[in-house]
Amino acid sequence: MKTPKPISPFRLSSLLRLQKDPNLALKLFQNPNPQHPKAHKPFRYSLLSYDLIVTKLGRVKMFDQMEQILQQMKQETRFDPPEILFCNVISFYGRARLPHRAVQMFDQMPSFRCQRTVKSFNSLLDALRRCGELPKVREIFMGMENYVNPDACTYNILIKACCVNGSLDDAWVVFDEMRRKGVRPNVVTFGTLIYGLCVDSRLKEAFKLKEDMKRIYGVKPNAFVYTSLIKGLCKIGELSLAFRLKEEMVTNKIELDAAVYSTLINALFKVGRKGEVSGNLEEMSVYGCKPDTVTYNAVINGFCKEKDFEAAFRILDEMVKNNCKPDIISYNVIIGGLCKEGKWIEANDLFEDLPRRGCSPDVVSYRTIFDGFCSWRRFKEAIFILEEMVFKGYGPYSASANKLLVGLCEEGNVEDLWKALNCLVNAKENVVDLDTWGLVISIVCKMDKLSNAFNLVDTLSALNAVN
C-alpha cells in the first residue's frame, strides 16, 4: 500500500484556513500527520499556521486551548511572532470581557521576543475600554508615554471611553490634549465626539463641530457622522432637517446605508407618517442601497405599533422574496405586538411555526409569549411554555412569574400553582418576590388544604435555597 504524502507546513496552513470547525482545526494542528511513518519527528510549524489556529480559537473563546498554542509558539526559535498576533489576542480577551487576561497577555509579550509599540498599547486600551475598566485605561495611558508616543488611535479610544461613560466634558479635555500634543484629529475623532453629543441631545454643538471639522481641520464628514446627526434630529422630531441631511449626503457623494433609512423609517412611524415608508424603501434601491434585516425590522416594528399585523406579515414575505432572511428579532416584534393586543392565539401560532421558518426561538421569544399568556390569564398555556423555557435553561421575567402565581392564587388553582412553583424551583434565577410567596401560602391555607400548604412552604424554601 502506498504511503500517504505527509502534510507540509504550507499545506497545513491551507487546511487550517479551510477548516471551519475550530475543534477539528485544533486536532489537525496538534497532529497534522497521524498516519505517516515519520509522524514521531517534530513538525516544523510555520508562523502562519500559528496565527491561523490562534485566531480560530480566540474567535470562539477557546482561550485555554489558545493559551496552550501560544506557549508552544514561545518555544519556537525559527521566527519571532509579530505584534499584530498579540494585538488580536488582547482584542479577543477584550470582547470576552476578560480584562485581567488582556493585561497579562500584554505583559507577556516581551517573553515572546516581541517588542511592544503603540499598536499593542492601543489594543490593550481598547480591550479595557470594552470591559468598562476606565480607571485602568487612565492608568495605562498615564504610563504609556514612558514607552511610546500616543497617536490618533490612542486618543480616539480615550474619547470613546469618555463618551460611552457619559463624560462628554472629559472627552473634550482629551480632545484638547490631543491637539496640544500635536496629534492631528481624524474622522474617527470627530465622529466619536459628534455621536456623543447627539446621544446627549446637544445637537447645536454637534452641528458646529461638523462645520469645524471641515473648515478648520479639512476633514470631510463620513456616513457615521451623518447617521449620528440624523438619529439625533429624529430623536427630537426634526424630520425635515433629518431628510435634508440625507440629501446633503447624496450631494456630497457619501454612500447612503441601511442605517440611515432604518433611522428615518423609525421616525416616520413615530410621527404617524407611515404612508411615506414605502417610498423610502423604493428610494433605497434607486441609490443602490439594499434594505437589510435591520431596515425591515424597523418597518415591522412600526406596523406592529400601528396594530397593522397584516402589513407586518407582508413585510416578512417581502424579506424572503428579496433574499433577506428574517431573524428572531423580526418574529419577536410581531409576537410581542400580537400578545399586547390580546391576539395570543396568533402569537402562539407564529411562535410554534418558528422552527419551520428556519428560526429557533430565543429567550426573548419565550419570555414574550409567556408574558402574553399571563397577561391574558391563559395560565395553562403559560405553564406549558414555562416548563419548556426552564428545560432550555431560560427563565421568565420576574413580573411575569409573579403575575402567573398571583393569577393562579386568585383562581384557587392549587394544582397548577404547584406545577408552576416546581418549574420555578428549577429556574436559574429566583424570580418570585417575597410578597408573592406570602400570598401563595396564605391563599392555600385559607382553602384549608394544610398538606398542600406545607408542601408549598417546602417548595418555596427550596426555591429560596437554590437561588
From TrEMBL:
Tell me the InterPro entries matching this sequence: PPR_P_subfamily, PPR_rpt, TPR-like_helical_dom_sf
Q: Where are the PPR repeats?
A: 151-185, 186-216, 222-256, 257-291, 292-326, 327-361, 362-396
Stored Pfam families: PPR (PF01535), PPR_1 (PF12854), PPR_2 (PF13041)
| Keywords for this protein | Repeat
**Chain segments annotated as transmembrane:** none
According to the record, the signal peptide region is none
Please name the PANTHER family in this protein's record. Answer: CRIB DOMAIN-CONTAINING PROTEIN, MITOCHONDRIAL GROUP I INTRON SPLICING FACTOR CCM1
Q: Which family does it belong to?
A: Belongs to the PPR family. P subfamily.
Q: What is this protein called?
A: Pentatricopeptide repeat-containing protein
Species of origin: Rhamnella rubrinervis
